[in-house]
Amino acid sequence: MDIKLIIKLNDKLYLRNPEESDLGRKILQHSIVLIEQIGFESFTFKKLAQEIGTTEAGIYRYFENKHRLLLYLVDWYWSWQEYRLMMETKNVADAETKIRTAINLIATRVEDDLSTGHINEKLLHDIVMAEGAKSWLTKHVEADNKDQLFKPFKDLCARIAEFIKTYNPDYAYPFSLSSTMIEMAHSQYFYMQHLPSLTDFGNAKSGDEIIRFLEQMVFGVLDSTSKPEGKKKKTG
Amino acid sequence: MDIKLIIKLNDKLYLRNPEESDLGRKILQHSIVLIEQIGFESFTFKKLAQEIGTTEAGIYRYFENKHRLLLYLVDWYWSWQEYRLMMETKNVADAETKIRTAINLIATRVEDDLSTGHINEKLLHDIVMAEGAKSWLTKHVEADNKDQLFKPFKDLCARIAEFIKTYNPDYAYPFSLSSTMIEMAHSQYFYMQHLPSLTDFGNAKSGDEIIRFLEQMVFGVLDSTSKPEGKKKKTG
DNA sequence: TTTATATAGATAGTAATACTATCATAATAA
DNA sequence: TTATTATGATAGTATTACTATCTATATAAA
Prior knowledge:
Two copies of one chain form a homodimer.
Chain A: H1 22-38, H2 45-52, H3 56-60, H4 66-88, H5 95-107, H6 121-131, H7 141-146, H8 151-167, H9 174-194, H10 208-224
The structure holds a DNA duplex.
């Protein structure tokens, strides 16, 4: 079986669809490598052009500026995560299992490549952890939001919120809990690596502890507000 | 009673202490106004100099670059929050009350000015919400961390972690829960304002709902793991 | 009072960034 | 064959992020 996964994103993200040409795919591929390497602040289209063997102007034909390119990558990542979550929870009836699956997906470091040729998911995961927040922490969030540029993240958030609502229909903050879970998975990982005294995962360098932390937190709240029959604490 | 609060910060943050001169205090005052207005990306020392009526070179005598200035402001903010927390929890024995006080402090939008002349805490609060993450989301986090530039945030985090440990000594993740609380207070507020579909606070424009969300979350976890006598759910 | 020192203002300059514009060429499609 | 499109090559501009130097003024030390 040779399956190719192509994720189609909002066309306001780009001037020319990078998935539809060699140069476009090279831009995606090498921007991931370069941003991960030198960080988004130091990343410039000129440096990227040199890596690829094209010119600055060539890249500007695909993306208006580097922030749009970042948005593209971040949106790609969240769309991919939503796709994975849908796959993993297919035919699963139990809401608790769905939530646990979601936590595992977002809090486990991506290690392998997939059927997506030019996209290195592992590096992309690191980028989203380290730079993702910069995609919305701008003065033009609201304009970008109107253009639907945050839809993939919102969609994922809404999916998990659905699981939460199914698990405990009485819980008042399914969306906030969902977005919190996702953000915490990333920021606790970042802290663990760079500012460990903000966490309790000093020595453990795997993400397993983060998963336990998140599970305890999520089921702690969901089980402490009035909860469906048959569900009792499984987290302590 | 006329009390003046001066917060002394790590001297690696600046080249010349901005609290010790007229120009320095003007830099602090106007950088807060300007960053809040145009955002950190668009903010430059040249624009700031024009606001103040000095020159670019003048500002470079105080701060190496704009990132250091942001760090200064962010550190000032967290030091101030820790100070407020210590004040508010003085002579309070009950750990639950201390935690609730902490949540209220970090999740309530700062509205008033204090005895700190040139620092506008309300604007500063908005800056820390919108730009704070950029202070550590860089490729030089670890170098900055070695210079202790994140100490004020860590200190606040450790204080709240202490409250958590007192409240429930069996809970395994006091630091992660503490940093999560603080971050969530900010990011949920930011979402509420700009990306409301990531939250459950769409209409409510006050921070009260965020406080309830956080309280439920924190006590949900802390009461679901084994807990001290006399503490039962108060959050549902 | 003189002199040294520190602080700020004024001005200039430089490399890099974030673009925009134009022209030529090669590949492809009509 | 011609028109269209994608890319490459080159140039140019305003702004950013600095560094350097020189002068005037205020304050502190001798």
